[in-house]
Design a protein that fits this description.
This protein is mainly β. Helix content is 0%, strand content 55%. It is built from no helices and eleven strands. The strands form two sheets. Strands 2, 4, 5, 6, 9, 10 and 11 form a seven-stranded mixed sheet that branches. A four-stranded antiparallel sheet has the order 1-3-8-7, with no helix packed on it. β5 and β6 form a beta hairpin. The protein is globular and about 45 Å long.
């Protein structure tokens, strides 16, 4: 009933910047907090950033000060602005959303690859 689609991934050099976008469609009124996770091969999936309907945000310590999460006024699109990228940021990035109406569950997008390398 809710679909998430990421875009904006690609290849960047260390120190570069990239902006990821996530668009929600379907029964978007049923979702509340949204965020971004990432996972690299051989590493555990981690939560990168979250944003609440109020606009409050939280970040993993590893990206704090470099990444910024934001949303559109209608809350249907969430962005992740990434700056001063490092090779350690290389991962598949997934958009997530929490369902707050009915049975709680998490929605996940298909992911977009970010590669930081010379």
């Amino acid at each position: 009933q809710v679909q998430l689609e990421e875009s904006g991934g690609g290849f960047v050099e260390p120190g570069g910047s990239l902006r990821l976008s996530c668009t929600a469609s379907g029964y978007v009124a049923s979702i509340g907090p949204m965020g971004w996770h990432r996972q690299a091969p051989g590493k555990q999936r981690e939560l990168v950033a979250t944003i609440l309907n109020s606009g409050d945000t939280n970040y993993a310590d590893s990206v704090k000060g470099r990444f910024t999460i934001s949303g559109s006024n209608d809350k249907n699109t969430v962005y992740l602005q990434m700056s001063d990228l490092e090779p350690e940021d290389t991962a598949a990035y997934y958009c997530t959303a929490q369902k707050i109406w009915g049975t709680p569950r998490d929605y996940w997008g298909q992911g977009t690859q970010v590669t930081v390398s010379l």
